[in-house]
Design goal:
Length: 331
């Protein structure tokens, strides 16, 4: 009889366990826990910096665009100085090159003018000689007009035509050379001009980076921990301080791994705090892509690990506290 009662007792415990497990899984599928979290902006720099001034203290409320911190970057300053020196050096070379080009153009123009005067003088002499010969021979009856040479066949006229052609070719050649020199000064392919443009762009980018060393708050919120003090040097990407939004903007929920497929992006949920004093409607905006262990504070038994997926839930303005534990129910 005692053996029968014992077996009955064991069966009762087993049934109770099964009911509890089913209840737990059912509960996980409709209700799960989460933590109210806010947006966080962590301030760091990609280069080594030295903190010149910090205008805030932990817990201080700041508004968007408030000046938070001023830092200096020795590497950035050194690069700005180097690029500035290179730019001035290249500009000096450009000026020298331009002056040399202008001097060459002026010399070519001077050569054209000299050549023009020289050839025109020779042409004038030849034309005077031609006219003189013509005057001397026009009254000589012994010379038959039929036998006189035409202007095109006259040796003097032929010399004059040759000189004029020589001057025209010289002018064309000189003008071509001048156009080439002018084009070289204005062309974007001028190596000096390309270098100047590249250095100007780099200097502008460096100055923009320097301007950003004056850090302004990107959001209205509260200042978190400050990890460095004025005068300290900070290595690249080391977090200096963080700014949090004043109220939670989303919920980090955790769904048991056995029912993760029942939660989808776009699902509507109801979020309540532990005192049921705040009821907020939210929307699932993300579901984790891997299985992780629940935070200890969300476990029913801290000693027993629970695994599942993280769910991100967007919520409107609310009265929740940052880090507050909440209950989430699918609608």
């Amino acid at each position: 009889m005692k053996s029968f009662k014992f077996i009955l007792f064991v069966w009762a415990l087993a049934i109770a366990g099964i009911v509890m497990v089913n209840f737990t899984f059912t509960n996980y599928s409709t209700v799960f826990l989460g933590i109210a979290t806010s947006d966080e902006i962590e301030i760091s720099y990609p280069t080594p910096v030295e903190i010149k001034d910090i205008n805030v203290v932990p817990g201080q409320e700041v508004a968007e665009d408030d000046l938070i911190m001023i830092v200096d970057s020795p590497e950035l300053d050194e690069r700005i100085e180097t690029v500035g020196f290179q730019l001035e050096e290249i500009k000096a070379r450009v000026n020298v090159s331009a002056r040399e080009t202008i001097s060459q153009i002026e010399q070519i123009e001077s050569d054209v003018a000299t050549k023009t005067i020289e050839i025109n003088s020779r042409i004038a002499q030849l034309e005077a000689q031609f006219q003189l010969n013509k005057d001397l021979t026009k009254d000589l009856k012994s010379i038959n007009p039929v036998n006189q040479q035409s202007d095109s066949q006259n040796p003097i006229k032929m010399q004059i035509a040759s000189l004029r052609q020589e001057l025209e070719l010289f002018r064309q050649s000189s003008n071509g050379r001048i156009r080439q020199l002018n084009s070289g000064m204005t062309s974007n392919q001028n190596p000096y001009e390309v270098q100047v443009k590249n250095l100007v762009d780099e200097l502008q980018s460096l100055n923009d980076q320097k301007q950003k060393l004056n850090t302004y708050s990107a959001i209205s919120g509260l200042v978190g921990d400050i990890n460095f003090e004025r005068g300290e040097k900070v290595s690249p990407y080391s977090p200096i301080l963080a700014i949090y939004s004043k109220s939670p903007s989303y919920i980090r929920g955790f769904v048991h791994e056995s029912v993760v497929d029942e939660i989808r992006i776009g699902d509507l949920v109801t979020v309540t705090n532990s005192k049921n004093s705040s009821v907020i409607e939210g929307e699932v905006i993300g579901v984790g892509s891997r299985i992780i262990e629940f935070p200890i504070r969300l476990r029913r038994n801290p000693e027993v690990g629970i695994w599942g997926r993280e769910v991100q839930i967007s919520i409107p303005e609310n009265g929740l506290l940052l880090g507050e534990k909440v209950t989430i129910r699918l609608q």
